[in-house]
Every structure is written in C-alpha cells, then in structure tokens.
Specification:
Blueprint lengths: L3 E12 L2 E12 L3 E5 L6 H9 L6 E6 L2 E2 L5 H6 L2 E4 L11 H5 L15 H13 L17 H14 L4 E5 L7 H16 L3 E5 L3 H7 L2 E6 L2 E7 H12 L17 H4 L10 H8 L7 H12 L3
Parallel strand pairs: 3-8, 3-9, 6-7, 7-8
Antiparallel strand pairs: 1-2, 1-4, 4-5, 9-10
Helix pairs in contact: 4-5, 8-11
Bound molecules: adenosine-5'-triphosphate and magnesium ion (MG).
C-alpha cells in the first residue's frame, strides 16, 4: 500500500533569470513531519507554493495520496487537502477567529441566507479544542493576537478545510522559544491525528526536535532526503572532511566502514552524550557539529 501523502516528481520552475527548481523529487510520507531546509533562495517556498497551486510549475508531476493531482490553481490545493501557511498571514485583523476561519464560506441557518454565527463559533471552538496548547477563544479579534496565536488560527483554518497536508513556511521565525515549544506540541498533535506536516526551517535545532525526515535544497536542487536520525552520522562525516555529499551516499554504507561501523547500534535519540563520547577529542561540542552542517547547507 502506498503510504505517501505527497510526491514531487521532477519539479522544475524558472523565473526570469533564475531557475528556482531543477527536477526536484521528494516523497513525503503520511503523518510525517518532513522538514525542508536550505539557505535563502534555495527554492523552498517556490516548491511549497507549487504544491498548493499558488505557482504553476514548468515541468514535473505532483501526486497526492498516490494519485497524480492537477494542481494548477490555489483552489486545487484546497480540494486536494493541502494548505500552505505563509509567514505573512492571510487573516483579517478586524474580524474574530471564527469569522476568519469561515471567511468566504460562512455557514447559514438551514436554507436561509442568514449567517449562523453560533454554529461557526461552535465549530471553531471544537477545532481550537484540538489545539488546546494555545487556549484560544473563537471570539478573540485577530488584531489582538500574538504571531504564534495567529499561526494557530491558520492551522485551525487548515483543519476546518479538512486539510490532510499542512505546509508551514518558516513558522517559528517570529516565535519565542516557549511559543515554538507549544507550536511543536500542536504539530505532534496533528501527527497523532494522521496529518502530514511540511515544515520549512532555517534552524537546525528545530529539525532535530520535530522532524521525522529532512530534505535539503540548494540552488534549486535536491541535495538529499534523509531520516532525521541519519543526519547526525552525516554531519559527523562532514566533520571528517567529506565535503562533497552526494545524494547516493548511504548510511550505514560500505564506503566509509571505518567510521560508520563505530556508530554501531547507538540510537541517535541519545545523541548528545553518546556521539560526543564516541568521538571525544575530535568533536568537542554540539556547536562544532552545527557549524559543520551550516557550512554544508547554509542553515544554522
Ligand atoms: N515571484 C518570483 N519572481 C522572480 N523570482 C522569484 C520569485 N519567487 C522566487 N524567486 C526566486 O527564486 C529563487 C528561489 O526562491 P524561494 O523564495 O523559493 O527561496 P527560499 O528557499 O524560500 O528562500 P528563503 O529562505 O529566503 O525564503 C530565488 O532566487 C528567488 O529570488
Ligand atoms: Mg522562502
């Protein structure tokens, strides 16, 4: 059975003077949190906008839940169950949360033309309940919310549209550490419900915290897709001076047995002490690793 939520197959996109994406192929598993990372201008947002039909690709195929999807306008993204949450929110600050969530598709009383405000608030409260880390009241005005709370309203909106795939473009950029922690709780809750999250981030620490898989883009090309837990060995390889990482590098692999067998069965989840003790003297700190990684991906 196909366990993929979303597949990008050979997606290319050019803007005048720049090829933003070059035959990018990524598979995103159902209910995974899949991080897309890469330096500024790598093509992350372009790929995500293509996924929801905000931008039209020049070439390539998008499959949603195993089927080729005709995503050529934003309404196609919604009808395929994909929502993109931009950094610049699309909320109306003078309206309350429920009004925003049902903006343009207001619920009416029976067959009458009159809006059913109570029903919209009730349904909004039900969705907000599932995002309870942020304890929001559906009557709150958007203009009175913090950035993190607005983020949650956007997620609630995506859920009310029955989105099964939610894309967050640098959601934590303007959040405090505590807000980020709570947002991650929400993301874990979505995962538990089977929702797939694509998560664009510049921050390495966040990827280790929340992502199941990671895809790295550079200059419009996919460098690699790996399980998050496989990134640490990879970073350590970079420390050993293997600067040219190719997408066909396998971990563990035969190519660098001297290094890789040392990884043994150690779980990367216990990485901080385990990895550092294995390579004590060579890798002195987590920062050392982070810095090496940033040289490679441009992220920090
Ligand atoms: N609408 C557009 N018109 C022209 N060029 C564009 C447009 N959108 C993106 N680009 C270019 O395409 C390339 C990829 O941009 P994109 O916004 O996808 O990168 P990104 O990885 O999201 O970067 P950032 O981390 O800065 O958000 C860049 O060179 C950018 O200047
Ligand atoms: Mg971007």
């Amino acid at each position: 059975m196909n366990d993929l939520a979303l597949e990008f197959i050979n997606i290319s996109k050019s803007f005048p003077g720049v090829q933003a994406l070059k035959e990018v192929s990524i598979q995103i598993k159902k209910a995974d949190v899949h991080a897309i990372v890469g330096e500024n201008g790598a093509g992350k947002s372009t790929l995500m906008k293509i996924a929801v039909g905000e931008l039209l690709r020049d070439a390539g195929i998008i499959k949603v839940f195993g089927r080729e999807a005709q995503i050529i306008s934003p309404s196609d993204g919604y009808s395929c169950g994909i929502s993109l949450i931009h950094q610049e929110f699309s909320l109306v600050s003078t309206l309350d949360i429920a009004q925003n969530i049902f903006l343009g598709r207001e619920l009416t009383r029976g067959n009458s033309p009159f809006m059913d405000s109570n029903l919209m608030h009730k349904q909004t409260e039900e969705i907000l309940d599932s995002l309870k880390m942020f304890r929001l009241d559906s009557h709150l005005k958007i203009g009175d919310l913090t950035v993190a709370q607005k983020q949650v309203v956007e997620i609630a909106k995506a859920l009310s549209l029955n989105s099964k795939i939610i894309i967050m473009d640098e959601p934590t950029a303007a959040l405090t550490l505590e807000e980020t922690r709570r947002l991650f709780e929400v993301v874990r809750g979505l995962k538990a419900k089977g929702v797939t999250t694509l998560f664009i981030s510049h921050r390495l620490e966040e990827i280790f915290e929340i992502a199941d898989k990671v895809s790295i883009l550079r200059d419009g090309e996919l460098i690699l897709t790996k399980q998050q837990t496989q990134l640490f060995p990879l970073i350590i390889l970079i420390n050993y001076g293997i600067h040219k990482i190719r997408s066909n590098l396998t971990i563990p692999g035969e190519k660098y047995p001297g290094i890789l067998t040392n990884f043994g069965n150690k779980s990367v989840h216990h990485r901080s002490s385990v990895w550092f003790s294995i390579y004590g003297g060579k890798i002195s700190s987590r920062n050392h690793i982070t810095n090496s990684f940033s040289c490679f991906t441009g992220i920090y």
